[in-house]
Design a protein that fits this description.
Layout lengths: L8 E7 L5 H11 L7 E7 L5 E7 L2 H4 L2 H6 L4 E7 L14 E7 L2 E13 L2 H10 L9 H10 L6 H8 L5 E8 L4 E5 L8 E5 L8 E5 L3 H6 L2 E5 L4 E6 L2 E6 L8 E2 L1 H6 L5 E2 L2 E2 H15 L6 E4 L5 H11 L7 E3 L11 H5 L7 E3 L1 H4 L3 E6 L6 H12 L4 E6 L27 H8 L3 E4 L2 H8 L6 E2 L1 H4 L15 H6 L6
Helix pairs in contact: 4-5, 5-6, 9-10, 9-15
The structure holds iron/sulfur cluster.
Length: 484
């Protein structure tokens, strides 16, 4: 229904004896649902017991029943919501992935939830196959789980500290054994991962949790403590929170698109509340390209904060130009030939009473292929808009992401090889302006030196990115894969 970049994955983990860990994980995943709608899963364990995992295709509220949460009893748990960036949308690729391997005469059981994408997955996969390791999925996440589970080190933290420098790409990972949760992040800090503290009245011990975004802490009554540092390994266990550095931090490369689009507006990232940062993007968008207009409208919901900021800076009224149907995020029944021409109306219905005769400034957060934007412009014209001026709170997307975001191929991107004027002509709007990269950094109060903006600039922060394998690479390379 929308041709924007696809959200990646969300991860969560907590160690909290005496708490309903699976229920807390369920609600944390519910808050992270925007990061992945293809599958959801929770793994839980009693200290010293076994890890039990429940994972399924579907949304969080479709996957888990009350009975599932009762069965997933324990003192620690991890959870995952997925949108596939490596491997197709199949049950086998849902997470947490679980591996049980014999090491040094004992068995190591590991469950793992991953947000990101490895750029050396094929090489590592090949190496593990040669060592006789088999796989039950085609996701890069199982490669990481297998490397940790088969590592000879006695302590899982030692195994992770040795494995981490061998992984190349983007990874924010929450893993668990039977008695602790271990979270770690790639040395560039590409994808987010934060630590929260769960403090209960009458309980002296602080329990810790980790999540992709701080909105997951809010929903379970935890407070944000700090981000997991790039290259850091954090253990949540009986001794509280422990930390070690497994790889020296390299050039920081936090994904700038998290601020623009992916993360929830109520999440904090690098000391920014995203709702506020997005409002500033709207203000700067106006200052960069003012236009004679009567009304500001947003493409709901993603364009809302920037539209408010733009209207504020412009001193123009803002109104709802569309009514959004909030229940079509996941539709299995296709509209069919008769309804196809109304396609986007299933999601956005324009309000002619608001729009007709007006010179509109229309705000959205990004354009990838342009199909949705083209239809939006046409719907607004059909509803009687006098002029349609598109304002986008991100620079033009011209390059694919290899770090965990699914975008179209370069050739499918409307801005690839076209000037802004040519894109405006393709979309059929009266004018078009994209927020400059400088404007994005000004809005978030940060610099390019610590962020990744490769999908806009083409400057990939990791060497070897151009040789990265595609989303389905392990399916071509490895089939058939034996069950683990
Ligand atoms: S390429 Fe774009 S979407 Fe991917 S990590 Fe970099 S800024 Fe984020």
């Amino acid at each position: 229904m929308r041709d924007g970049p696809r959200d990646e994955c969300g991860v969560f983990g907590l160690y909290a004896p005496g708490h309903e860990v699976s229920r807390l994980s369920y609600f944390a995943l519910y808050a992270l649902q925007h990061r992945g709608q293809e599958s959801a899963g929770i793994a839980a364990a009693d200290r010293g017991g076994h890890i039990i995992t429940r994972r399924e295709l579907g949304l969080v509220n479709q996957v888990f029943t009350e009975n599932d949460l009762r069965t997933l009893a324990g003192e620690l748990a991890i959870g995952h919501v997925r949108y596939s960036t490596t491997g197709s949308n199949a049950w086998e690729n849902s997470q947490p992935v679980q591996r049980s391997e014999g090491t040094n005469g004992s068995r190591r059981e590991v469950a793992l939830a991953h947000n990101g994408n490895l750029i050396n997955a094929l090489e590592l996969h090949e190496e593990l196959l040669e060592r006789g390791v088999s796989f039950s999925s085609t996701s890069d996440s199982e490669i990481i789980a297998a490397m940790i589970a088969t590592h000879p080190a006695e302590d899982v933290e030692d195994a992770i500290a040795d494995v981490l420098p061998r992984l190349r790409g983007a990874f924010s990972i929450v893993a668990m054994t039977k008695d602790r949760v271990v979270a770690f992040r790639d040395p560039h800090g590409l994808r987010p991962l934060s630590i929260g503290a769960l403090e209960s009245p009458g309980e002296d011990t602080v329990r810790y949790c980790v999540a992709s975004e701080s909105c997951a802490f809010d929903i379970i009554g935890a407070r944000f403590v700090r981000d997991v540092e790039p290259g850091e390994v954090v253990t949540l266990g009986p001794d509280g929170l422990q930390s070690r550095t497994a790889a020296p931090g390299r050039r920081r490369a936090f994904c700038v698109f998290e601020y623009i689009y992916f993360a929830r507006p109520d999440s904090r990232m690098n000391d920014q509340v995203l709702q506020v940062a997005r409002g500033r993007m709207g203000e700067l968008l106006w200052h960069e390209a003012p236009v004679e207009a009567d009304l500001v409208i947003a493409v709901p919901d993603s364009g809302n904060p920037a539209a408010r900021g733009l209207a504020r800076a412009a001193g123009l009224p803002q109104d709802d130009g569309f009514v959004k149907n909030r229940y079509v995020a996941r539709t299995f029944i296709q509209p069919g030939q008769e309804l196809r021409k109304h396609g986007l109306r299933l999601k956005f219905n324009p309000l002619p009473e608001v729009i007709a005769g007006k010179r509109l400034v229309v705000v959205d957060d990004s354009i990838v292929r342009g199909n949705t934007t083209r239809q939006i412009v046409q719907m607004l014209r059909d509803a009687g808009a006098a002029e349609v001026h598109m304002r986008i709170s991100a620079p033009p997307i011209k390059h694919p992401c290899h770090y965990g975001i699914d975008m179209s191929t370069r050739e499918e991107m409307i801005a690839h090889g076209r000037t802004t004027e040519e894109v405006a002509a393709e979309l059929g709007c009266d004018s078009l302006h994209y927020l400059s990269l400088e404007g994005v950094y000004e809005a978030i109060g940060a610099t390019r030196a610590t962020h990744c903006d490769a999908c806009f600039s083409g400057e990939y922060p990791l060497e070897g990115t151009h040789g990265a394998a595609g989303k389905y690479a392990l399916e071509q390379d490895a089939a058939p894969l034996a069950p683990a």
